Amino acid sequence: MAYAQAPQGGTMPSSSGRAKRPLWHWLLLGGVLLVGLLIVGAFAIFIGFQVLNRGNPQSTLEDFYSSLENTDCDQFMDSTTEDFRANTGLTSCEIFEENLGNVSAVDYRVDDRINRQGYAIFEVTETYSDDGQDVEVQLRYYVRRIDGQWDLDGIEVVEEGGQPIT
């Protein structure tokens, strides 16, 4: 009985008649696959970070009310746009503290929120006390995304029976 021997310097053919792939081939293929997976993983982490780091426009609204309640000018400046401050006349900390230093607690409730491209619009019911009388006001806040940060850009009073945000 004769046995087949592998040719000198070659690889032994498999039972199907094809030569087996050398080990370096599988190592190279595994390395390329691993690099590809690392690139996809890094890209997924980057996208995830960008999505999670977008901020929350409602936090801006909360910061705005907190700045009024605590007469915190730095927080007010950080949560509003320059245009908003110019339109309200609250352009410096001295003016802010002079005009809002005696504001008591203001309660608010977000009734509706709609997101737009670069904007979030909030309808808010604000309740406060003025000379012993409870006052309730419907307001619409426009929070704008500028350079990756959400800032309060505008406020308007919603007239009774006015158009809802759509």
Describe what is shown at a glance:
The chain crosses the membrane at residues 23-49. The chain has helices at residues 23-52, 57-70, 73-79, 82-88, 93-100; strands at residues 107-116, 119-130, 133-146, 149-157.
Polypeptide structure, described:
This protein has 166 residues and is of the alpha+beta class. Helix 2 packs antiparallel against helix 3. It is elongated. It is built from five helices and four strands, in the order H-H-H-H-H-E-E-E-E. A four-stranded antiparallel β-sheet has the order 1-2-3-4. Helices cover 40% and strands 27% of the residues. It folds into two domains: 23-53; 57-157, Nuclear Transport Factor 2, Chain: A (Roll), CATH 3.10.450.
List keywords for this structure.
single chain, 166 residues, alpha+beta, Nuclear Transport Factor 2, Chain: A, 2 domains, 4-stranded antiparallel sheet
